Amino acid sequence: MNLANKLKEIIPSDRVSTNETILLNHSRDDSFHPARFTDVVIFPEEKEDIIEIIKFANINNIAVTPFGIGSGLEGSAIPVNGGISLDLKKMNKILEINPEDFLVQVQPGVTRVQLNKELGKYGLFFSVDPGADATLGGMASTNASGTTTVRYGMMKDNVRDLEVVLADGRVIRTGGNAKKSSSGYNLTELFVGSEGTLGIFTELTLQVYGIPEVITAARAVFPTTNEAIHAAQSLLTVGVPIARLEFVEGKTLKYLNHVGNTNYIEDTSLFIEFHGSKGSVIADVELTKKLFNQNGCYQLHFETNSSGRNRLWEARHNSLYALIHQNPGKQVMNTDVCVPLSKLAEVVEFTRKCKEESGLQGDIIGHIGDGNLHAGILIDTKPSFDMEKANQFNEAIVKFALLCSGTCTGEHGVGLGKKKYQSLQHGVALDVMKSIKNVLDPNNILNPGKIFDTTEILEEKTKNVLDQCPAGAEAE
Amino acid sequence: MNLANKLKEIIPSDRVSTNETILLNHSRDDSFHPARFTDVVIFPEEKEDIIEIIKFANINNIAVTPFGIGSGLEGSAIPVNGGISLDLKKMNKILEINPEDFLVQVQPGVTRVQLNKELGKYGLFFSVDPGADATLGGMASTNASGTTTVRYGMMKDNVRDLEVVLADGRVIRTGGNAKKSSSGYNLTELFVGSEGTLGIFTELTLQVYGIPEVITAARAVFPTTNEAIHAAQSLLTVGVPIARLEFVEGKTLKYLNHVGNTNYIEDTSLFIEFHGSKGSVIADVELTKKLFNQNGCYQLHFETNSSGRNRLWEARHNSLYALIHQNPGKQVMNTDVCVPLSKLAEVVEFTRKCKEESGLQGDIIGHIGDGNLHAGILIDTKPSFDMEKANQFNEAIVKFALLCSGTCTGEHGVGLGKKKYQSLQHGVALDVMKSIKNVLDPNNILNPGKIFDTTEILEEKTKNVLDQCPAGAEAE
Predict the structure, then answer these.
(1) CB-based contacts of A2, cutoff 8 Å, min separation 6
(2) Per the entry, which co-factors are needed (chains A, B) (predicted)?
(3) Which of A159, B100, B214, B457 could join A342 via S-S bond, C-beta 3.0 to 4.6 A?
């Protein structure tokens, strides 16, 4: 009997699919990483489905790769070992909204937009905004963040509790509903960001916020990148509680104007947003005007109504698609390093230099309030395209970030793309991660081949990567 | 050869002590938990001392219990298995202050006040304030928090990176300097709060903040507890970024006035503090006045200069000592539950009722912006004192908090006092914690007997504790 038929004996057969189109849709994500067909796709509708599937997979050594909406950018959901793709989109119930405690309980397949639509009825919102309408389970699995993280934090800061099915079918809750705790080990934050390699999330308790009395967005235009970065740093230094703080290159604004029918000045810009009471936003705006003027800002345009504001953030979020739209048939390799704020100007400069030298096309955009920078590079799957050149570009930027004590991935996750930098970034700590993986998933059935290969020999890898480190990637 | 002499062969002999007074000082903390003499106290001066000691202890199955200044309130530093008390106070160097990135690197024996004195020169401060001048290593080990957590978070939110010596002498770094990361498992937050059971911290990288332009403190006096709690909740609901929000009973104010020569009105009060720019603090104060008036506040007294403000917070921090001062010869058992905000009024009421029924003496104080409540109960080590009654009181409050999806410890840690509630609070997740402990410290040398006993059989414990749960402890 084949795998799909066996699985149909365990859970209702309409939750098991081997339809070719469905298999194709689960073979890839939004990244450039090569697709890999899986054997079967499961659509669980309740926790018990997952428990049974996992138990079966564990006994029979079958890979289980969780899948949300497939908006990942590092291949975390690509089932590289085949087996089962576990699509959680039918587990999309908002289980409880608790406005008094600013908490919601959701199933993992609920999407960000779906949740915010419902929360709006209570005057609440969920803060993490990666752009894509991802599932909350997927966002927790990669510790996603985005434009509002500078004020409201990453997923890890906003997940209060998880229900998790472990590799052997045991079910745990990692946290509780209290705002703080010193009880036991912090399993919640161990599981957030583990990309499905330690367990399958079946329920999430999330912290939400009251919709601010006043929301004001603005575009600030600067003559140079350095002035824009210094202006951003000055805001953070004096502690303005800015809610969004995005860096956009002039070239990107050109694409955005073309795609979105806007007429933003096509020069280095910061897209910003203020949240607060009327009085506090007025105070924050005044201070910002002063600091930006001191740093060469030559236009500060406010979007006070919701349509102008929505247009602005839609433009920002569509920057990746705008780039593709201008270059039909191409894909984008998106770098994702995050560095300490003092290294921001340097890493932008280094990225530009590498791009120019490589002759690659693309642009730079960044959540610069967090030191997180994306260079979107156009790539082509045609054999004539020099993929090695793109990989070298990505690697040079990662190594530069690591030399600045930064990280190879600020928000997209490790997946397939950043595996090769794990030993360089984490050193001996990677062995500790592997020990934890091994004790919780000894048969390596949970999203195998992601973050690290459990069979790697750490010492050799570290040595090799360090040997290959080019001189040009040094921080100073 | 005895243990001390063997250790003197490994590290310089002046770092090894068996002096009776020193042994006594390392046999206890600030809690009521019984003292336990250790065999030897080590004062390492560099990381290499710790590595050598740990390797020796691991081979020879000797317990190693880290010790800061001994200000813990749950016995986490009491060496219940004897062996080595590892006193880190000589590793007290501030290694680097990086104002541009709002980061500092310190050794674990640096204390909070020591760090803030140095940071002040740069216009910076470290936010976590548990009252005691604890070491930062100790604070990280229990995931300490305190009066400023409502705005700036717990230790886990402010530790960016740790250097840790593992049980086998390997040294790892858990994080990096970037503000956010999705790379690998989040080991930093696994180690923070692990109370020295997973490794010894040898270096901490901490996030710090700019000293706000304006700091304004105030006392708000209310006729009833419920009105004070509702006023606090209303502030949080509208999102006033309050920096401290403390609940103090009228009775406690009586002690404080007596000890501190103040003349605060002896009625239920909130001690609050605003941080921000001049404009934003004015806006926050105005909104607070309005909300407090609507909730029955009959006096709102501002302390705008630093001496009045320091007097206020000193009084708040001294509340525990004021209670002891009024009752010479007594000790304090301090409860530490944390509950969702909606359950706050109920848990205060329940705590009062239990206290009245038990006839125990003491008062209630709370970081109510976080839902964290302390009932300080006077206890006596004389045999005539009914210790069982105090334990039952503590247990009733813990069980009430757990029925509200809260935690048995908001900030003091599990140590010895909250071990018995771990299976009730964490269920099967406790087995996962034990698996992690076992894989990282298979010989159980690191602070054995804390958080959990590795030999416990989980299922039986859970069943027993649940069976004993009194009907009166139900939330609804």
Answers:
(1) none
(2) FAD
(3) B100
Provide the token pair at A345: 């100007």
Kindly list the residues from chain B whose CB atom is less than 8 angstroms away from the CB atom of residue A339: 177-178
Query: Which pLDDT band, with edges at 50, 70 and 90, does A1 fall under?
Result: low
Are B145 and A209 inside 8 Å of each other by CB? no
Secondary-structure class of domain A214-322 per CATH = alpha beta
Residue A469 has what pLDDT?
39
Q: What is the mean pLDDT of chain A?
A: 93
What pLDDT was estimated at residue A327?
A: 84
Q: Which range is most confident: A62-71, A276-285, B256-265, B467-476?
A: A62-71
Q: What is the pLDDT of residue B258?
A: 87
- What is the DSSP secondary-structure string of B282-335? HHHHHHHHHHHHHTT--EEEEE-SHHHHHHHHHHHHTHHHHHHHTSTT-EEEE-
Question: Alpha carbon of A136 to those of A198, A446, B5: distances in Å?
Answer: 17, 19, 57
Which of the listed CATH numbers 3.40.640.10, 3.30.70.2740, 3.40.50.300, 3.30.1330.200 matches domain B327-473? 3.30.70.2740
For residue A462, is pLDDT > 60?
Answer: no
Q: Which CATH number fits domain B94-210: 2.30.300.10, 3.90.79.10, 3.90.380.10, 3.30.465.10?
A: 3.30.465.10
| pLDDT higher than threshold 60 for residue B458 | no
Q: Who among A177, A194, A418 is closest to B340 (CB)? A: A177
Strand locations in A157-298, DSSP E? 159-165, 171-173, 200-207, 209-210, 214-221, 244-248, 269-276
The ranges of chain B annotated as CATH 3.30.43.10 are 3-87
**In chain B, which residues have their Cβ closer than 8 Å to the Cβ of A439?**
435-436, 438-439
| Closest Cβ opposite residue A340 in set B177, B283, B439 | B177
What DSSP string runs through B391-452?
HHHHHHHHHHHHHTT-BS-SSS--TTTTGGGHHHHHTTHHHHHHHHHHHH-TT--BSTTSSS
Mutation target among B180, B191, B274, B335 for the A interface, most CBs of A within 10 A: B180
Q: Where in chain B is the domain with CATH 3.30.465.10?
A: 94-210
Contact (CB<8Å) B280/A278: no
Helix (H, G, I), strand (E, B) or coil at A323: helix
Burial label for A251, CB within 10 Å (0-12, 13-18, 19+), is middle
Res A279 pLDDT > 80: yes
Q: Are strands B16-17 and B103-106 parallel, antiparallel or unpaired?
A: unpaired
What percentage of chain A carries pLDDT values higher than 90? Answer: 84
Inter-chain residue contact A440 with B429, CB threshold 8 Å: no
Q: In chain A, where does the domain assigned CATH 3.30.70.2740 lie?
A: 327-473
More confident residue, A455 or B387: B387
Q: Which residue of B has its CA nearest to A149?
A: B180
Residues of chain A with CATH 3.30.70.2190: 214-322
Q: Write the CATH number of the domain with boundaries B3-87.
A: 3.30.43.10
